[in-house]
Design goal:
The chain is of the alpha+beta class and 335 residues long. It has 2 domains: 20-151 and 158-176, Orthogonal Bundle (Arc Repressor Mutant, subunit A); 178-325, no CATH class. It has 12 helices and 9 strands. The strands form 4 sheets. A 3-stranded antiparallel sheet has the order 3-5-4. Strands 1-2 form a two-stranded antiparallel sheet. The chain has a two-stranded antiparallel sheet with strand order 6-7. The longest helix has 29 residues, at 303-331.
Length: 335
Amino acid sequence: MYKTGIPACDALVELHIQGNVIPRIWFRTIVKDDLKNPKPHLLAINILADIVYWYRPKEIRDEITGDVKGYSKKFRSDLLQRSYDDLAETFSCSKDTAKEAVVFLEKKMGVIYRELRDLVIGGVCCNNVMFLGLNVNRLRELTYPSGEILTEGGGKPSQSSVEIPAESAGEFPRTNTENTKSQSSSYISSDSSQSIYRDKSAVNPTHAGFITIDRIDEIKKCRNVIKKNIEYDFLCFDYGSDRVNEVLELIVDNICTTRPTIRVCGEEVPSDVVRERLSALNRFHVEYVFDCIDTNTTKVKNIKSYLVTALYNAPMTMNHYYTSEVNHDLFAGSG
């Protein structure tokens, strides 16, 4: 066995130290700005290092060749679940101090974002469960402020974004909002007040079978815009959160798809056309689709395909329906 001549160095060969990595530059880029002499925010730096550790994917290697076949995530959901109590226990600080550091990373640094979700765990409703997302582009700026990213060999890396399995994008939890018109079937909703895809970069194809963390961030933004456009809370109150959530995810899936076409009305329609039509839906279009489904007596074999078609056609069919109703009311008695 080769020796370095330094006992401590030789002893460390036998230790397999794993865990968080803190780039030295963070002590200059992640600093408190409320001090006369800005100093590193040590707790925020440690929390960010822990978050980055969990977002770093695990390599999946071929058992024979040892080649990297892909990557897998370390946590269960689409975002990392953490509570202030967890962070306080991990870093031996108070809950309020942990919260302040998380808010600092989100509001001041812009490197993470918080999302509160309602979950049902073991049959128990848990409200406002915190999830932490990572802004990789901002992390890159804090870690490489000069803009130059180098590998150990001195060259530029072939790929700058972290990759995780694509299936994680479909694991969004359901909320436990009370249902007033709960249905067992799956449905839809969306609205027109905002155009979801002004930034077309969000729909650029990724490597086959994988989706980047940056893209997950874009999907999250898309979901938030749709929820606002369709007046999500109002729909949940009237039709039940389970039903509305299934429809919401169907819309997100079709708007964020990288497929060149989407099957609508039995035909392949260009994705851009479908995306624009779905992003123009409003609450009344969604209600119309729900009501049509509720009164439909025909057995639907593929509810997902049926819903995509119904939503795609909703603006035209709804207008035609109400025009016919008005004409009937105005002219039914004449003659």
